[in-house]
Design a protein that fits this description.
11 helices; globular; 6-stranded mixed beta sheet; 13 strands
C-alpha cells in the first residue's frame, strides 16, 4: 500500500514523506458532537459519565428555554446543486456542510442547529433528489431524504432562478400534499444578470429566467407555502434573502422589516391577499417545545465525519469527470493534541476508497502528485475547520463495488 504523509506548518516549508509499512495504532478521539465553542472529545475507552441530574432521561430533552420556547426540525429538500448546503451554512452562521459547485456533493442527511434564547432551529440538509437512483448508494441517499421529510415539523424547498424541479414524482407529490408549514427558497438569483433568455436551453418549457417568473411559478406549484423568498446564499449570511429567511424561521425579531429589505414586493411571494408576515405568524412555523440539544451544539455529527467530508470535497474539486463520485473517505484514526506533545497537532489517517483497481493509480497520480495535491488542499480546509494544525496521512485502497454493496454501505454509515 502506498501512503503519503503531509505535514504543513505555517512557519515551516512543506514536508513530503512517502512511507511503506504498517500504519501505527492511534487511539480514536473526536467522537462527540460539534459545538459552537469546542468539540467534545472522549477516548474510546473513557469511563461512562455519571448520571446527569440536569438531563430529563424520560423525555430526552434538556430542560431549558422556559415558557413559550419553540423547537423543531426543518428539512431542506430540492434537486441536486441547488445550494442547500450553502443555505444551511448561511442560516446557522457557521460553515458546517461542505459546499461545492458539482452536483451530488451531499450524501448524508446533516443536521445543523441554531439556538437562541427563544427558539432552537434543527435544520436538516439532505442529498439532492435523484429521480432514478443508479446504484445502492444513491438509494441510501434517497432514503435519507425521505427520512428527513417524515421527521420534519416544517419544510424548506430549495430551487434556483431556473425553477429546477424535484425529479422524483412520488416525493414531489408528497411535497405538494405537505400539510405542515412550508417555505420556498429561490436561490442563485444573482445569475439573473448573466442569463441570455434567447439561448435554446432557456426556452425549455417550465424553465424560468427572471425572479418574477420563478416566484409566480412556485406559487402555482405550492400554493400552501407560507412564503417564497428569493436569495443568493452564495453571498453569505448577510444576504438580504438569507436574513429574511432566518428571521422568519426564528420568529423574529421584526420579520416585516427583514421582508421590506428584500425590496419591492414580488407578486406571489405570499399567499393571496397577504402582503407580509408578522413575528407572531412566523412563530407558528415551529411547535412549542424545550430544546432538543445543548445551547452550544452545532450538529449531532462528530469531527471524524466532517473531516471525511472535507477530504472528499477536495477530491471533488481537484479531480475531473466521474472519479470523485467513485470515491469514499474513511477516517481510520484521529488524535487531538495532548498536553505533553511537543507539537500541538491534530493527527489523522484517512483512506480513500475507490470502486475499481484502475481508479487507484488515477487518484494517486504520477509520482504521487495527485494525492499530494489532494492532501495539501484538504489539510488547509481541515485546519480552518478544526482551528488547529493538522498532520494528515492519506492512503488509497480498492473496495470493489462499494457503492453497490449493501454490507459495505452499512459499514460506511449509508444504510441502517
Amino acid at each position: 500500500m502506498i501512503r503519503i504523509l503531509l505535514l504543513l506548518l505555517s512557519s515551516t516549508p512543506q514536508a513530503l514523506l512517502f512511507d511503506v509499512g504498517i500504519r501505527p495504532s492511534i487511539r480514536l478521539t473526536g467522537g462527540g458532537p460539534l459545538t459552537a465553542r469546542k468539540w467534545d472529545n472522549l477516548e474510546v475507552d473513557a469511563p461512562i459519565p455519571d448520571h446527569d441530574e440536569n438531563f430529563d432521561y424520560t423525555t430526552g430533552l434538556v430542560p431549558s428555554g422556559g415558557e413559550g420556547y419553540r423547537c423543531g426540525y426543518i428539512s431542506i429538500v430540492g434537486a441536486p446543486n441547488m445550494g442547500k448546503s450553502t443555505i444551511l451554512n448561511s442560516l446557522i452562521l457557521e460553515k458546517l456542510c461542505v459546499e461545492n459547485r458539482r452536483p451530488q456533493t451531499t450524501r448524508h442527511a446533516i443536521l445543523g442547529i441554531l439556538t437562541t434564547d427563544k427558539c432552537q432551529l434543527c435544520l436538516t440538509d439532505t442529498p439532492g433528489v435523484i429521480g432514478d437512483p443508479a446504484y445502492k448508494l444513491q438509494e441510501g441517499m434517497m432514503e435519507a431524504v425521505k427520512g428527513a421529510f417524515r421527521e420534519a415539523e416544517a419544510l424548506l424547498v430549495v430551487t434556483d432562478l431556473f425553477s429546477t424541479p424535484i425529479d422524483d414524482d412520488r416525493l414531489w407529490k408528497q411535497v405538494q400534499q405537505y400539510n405542515k408549514p412550508m417555505i420556498v427558497a429561490i436561490n442563485k438569483i444573482d445569475l439573473v444578470d448573466k442569463v441570455n433568455p434567447n439561448v435554446e436551453e432557456n426556452k425549455i418549457e417550465g424553465r424560468t429566467v427572471t425572479v418574477e417568473e420563478a416566484v409566480a411559478k412556485w406559487r402555482r406549484l405550492l400554493p400552501q407555502a407560507l412564503a417564497i423568498i428569493p436569495m443568493s446564499a452564495g453571498n453569505g449570511s448577510n444576504d438580504v434573502g438569507v436574513v429574511a429567511l432566518r428571521k422568519i424561521l426564528l420568529g423574529g425579531p421584526d420579520v416585516p422589516a427583514a421582508i421590506r429589505d428584500l425590496g419591492r414586493p414580488i407578486p406571489g411571494m405570499f399567499k393571496p391577499g397577504v402582503k407580509t408576515i408578522t413575528d407572531e405568524e412566523a412563530k407558528e412555523l415551529l411547535p412549542l417545545s424545550p430544546p432538543m440539544y445543548e445551547d452550544d451544539d452545532l450538529t449531532d455529527r462528530n469531527d471524524r465525519f466532517f473531516c471525511s467530508e472535507i477530504i472528499r470535497s477536495s477530491l471533488l474539486e481537484l479531480m475531473k469527470k466521474e472519479i470523485p463520485y467513485c470515491c469514499e473517505v474513511r477516517i481510520d484514526s484521529y488524535r487531538e493534541p495532548r498536553p505533553r506533545d511537543a507539537k500541538k497537532l491534530v493527527r489523522m489517517a484517512a483512506t480513500i476508497l475507490v470502486d475499481r483497481e484502475s481508479q487507484k493509480p488515477i487518484v494517486i497520480g504520477r509520482g504521487g502528485q495527485m494525492i499530494k495535491a489532494v492532501g495539501i488542499h484538504a489539510r488547509k480546509k481541515l485546519e480552518e475547520f478544526l482551528k488547529n494544525q493538522v498532520h494528515l496521512d492519506l492512503s488509497v485502497k480498492v473496495e470493489k463495488d462499494w457503492r453497490r454493496s449493501e454490507k459495505k454501505l452499512k459499514a460506511l454509515g449509508y444504510l441502517n
